[in-house]
């Protein structure tokens, strides 16, 4: 068997986008002149000619490697050419997780929302990325050989259409001229770009010609053509080039349905048609003159409809904001109250109103009628608008085109769009205004802009890769049952969130658009298990034979009758069910019915917030309705290393100013605290709560001091240490951390905390007793000396104390030898057993009575101290102790 080769260390790596063209390949080689020690990673290409050229020539000339051959962890600098988008470099995705990774970018494409953050970003809107890097090579005084110059020239010629595309700039000509001076072989470039077509390609080209249709879009002729085949068509882009040259076409969109997806190749020689922007809306990319996209889960007819919608909104758009907006706008000043906003919106029949600074027309927020109404129902009508208005919103200028308006209102779900002239608010466009205008347009709204369509991304592959087969089978079984019953079934909440985050989470919550309790009973019967139903809340828990729990809920909307109340439940749809969730990142659903398995339902931008690592509430009164969500926000923020969003943070501070925690029952507060105390790093949550004033809001005695932070830090360490040993019994985390949080509180005051947190009588009694036992043990431990005091003495001090108290003592002690010996007690001494019991004492002729306790205790201490190891030695010592007791008529148990 051959020995496995070690991975190559590659501190600097150069790569380009997946499905590379000649410009990407050439730009990678050009970049290697600027980074001479770099390893080049070829991203793969669908173009046959490019693949053959790469295989036959490039690997022999340049330092190309396969990604599987390098050590991803060794990469310190990643150089990306001809793209900036994270999604277009999946072949090096593991490298992006490297700590302290530096990124350099060279690109000529427009900006996008998923551009990588970079230490160096060279972006120029020239015809080819290769031209940009050639310019830097020339500026540095570097030289090229003939092979390098020819390859770089090939990249420039291809991406500028041999300088025929409108995106060609004087810089591209200048770069090509310099490459000619370096020895570029123009005949070789021409041969590679003007290659002969195969018989099959000629047939496909004939189909493209036959199916080509011309459409007049705002005075611009656009050609749409298509082919359909069950196999992949190599060099599809080449066929489109040939079609343009043969028919003298200015703008073409070629759709190739190949197997289970449609490939879109678009070219434009008309400055009014930016094919890069159109293909970007389809999930692809490119630049003004040349672009492409790959589309799944659509028919050719559906894709044509999408294209027409994009054409009418983007090609020479004649509709601009100025002709669509309502003016003058009805506004409300920011110093007004929620009640004032309700009165104003009711009077004018408005769903939203722009909020402006006092005595100006500068828009500072948007207030929704629904939010204001809710505030009044919670008796918050006197609260100022600034507390609950939406502060994060988009605006447009009066000359903005229609597509941008559609993006904001439809895709970003901003119902009202302020129109500004500089900082002056001059009008508004509402969702209703936009929809009324679109009714008269001969095109549908682009699917890419509709949240309802966009949310249906299929993540079945991620589900299969990240869940064990057993859990996957459970999901499919539940989906099949839903299908038989005629109900949609969804996995929801944190289970779906953690699939996207790649975190293990087997707490399965299902929502049924039907009768959740009936579904649960049938599912338990089918899968084996039992059901606990809660008719009041229309929920059930299925407990399977292997212990797996599945929570089942009827799709519902929860509403709250007063601040901090328990929810009242009504039937509703999955959208309303998700809307009741605490944060957007938890407002996700996954379809599990057959035929739609793996489709992600995201109404509220959860994927975006997960990508941006943001915790955001779904509506402004979320914390008023349920202040415990503040504790959950902090828990999720710390667990996932996310950040609470700005608006959400303002709402938290507002809830604290309203003293809403005082209206919460101790049971609910304690429940959330227990969840926090089960996190991997509870202290991080406590410190965050302290920063926001939450600890004091729960109870002033819980405010963290420097000493408390120190003890909580140590408690976290000993807690983790104990868990890693897998010892019994398991720790009740909340008891451990409450000991730390109440350290220093006087005995007579501790009842205030236990009452606030609604301890049961037994919990309160046990907790106070535990604190007393710890205090007594601390005094005794101060007198214990290693090497002088017996281990049995340490055993006697610690043995009566529950494990949480012992861990507290370990964290509390500043003496290393005491900590070391406490750990010895936990890991070994408490498991010491003697080989003699009451039956043995009876067989020795000793009558049962208090003497049994004395003898067994003495034997245990003797064994711990190493005086009696064997059973015989212990029996002998038992007789001796009994005889001494007879003589002395009793014996002290103290050493």
Topology:
Layout: E1 12-16, H1 22-34, E2 39-41, H2 48-61, E3 64-65, E4 77-81, E5 102-107, E6 120-123, H3 129-139, H4 146-159, H5 170-181, H6 186-193, H7 199-211, E7 213-217, E8 220-229, H8 236-247, E9 251-258, E10 261-268, H9 275-281, E11 285-286, E12 290-296, H10 300-314, E13 332-333, H11 338-348, E14 352-356, E15 363-368, H12 369-377, E16 396-397, H13 402-411, E17 416-421, E18 424-430, H14 431-439, H15 451-454, H16 460-466, H17 469-485, E19 489-492, H18 494-501, E20 508-512, H19 516-527, E21 529-534, E22 539-544, E23 549-554, E24 556-559, E25 568-571, H20 574-579, E26 589-591, E27 600-601, H21 606-611, E28 614-615, H22 622-625, H23 628-640, E29 643-644, H24 646-657, H25 666-677, H26 682-692, H27 694-698, H28 706-724, H29 733-741, H30 750-756, H31 761-782, H32 791-798, H33 803-812, H34 816-827, H35 838-843, H36 850-864, H37 871-888
Parallel strand pairs: 1-2, 1-4, 2-3, 4-5, 5-6, 8-9, 13-14, 16-17, 20-23, 28-29
Antiparallel strand pairs: 7-8, 9-10, 10-12, 11-12, 14-15, 17-18, 19-20, 19-26, 21-22, 22-23, 24-25, 26-27
Helix pairs in contact: 1-3, 1-4, 3-4, 3-5, 4-5, 4-6, 7-8, 11-12, 17-19, 23-25, 23-26, 28-29, 28-33, 29-33, 31-33, 32-36, 33-34, 36-37
Family: Belongs to the tRNA nucleotidyltransferase/poly(A) polymerase family.
Pfam family, one: DHH
Keywords: CBS domain, Magnesium, Metal-binding, Nucleotide-binding, Nucleotidyltransferase, RNA-binding, Transferase, tRNA processing, tRNA-binding
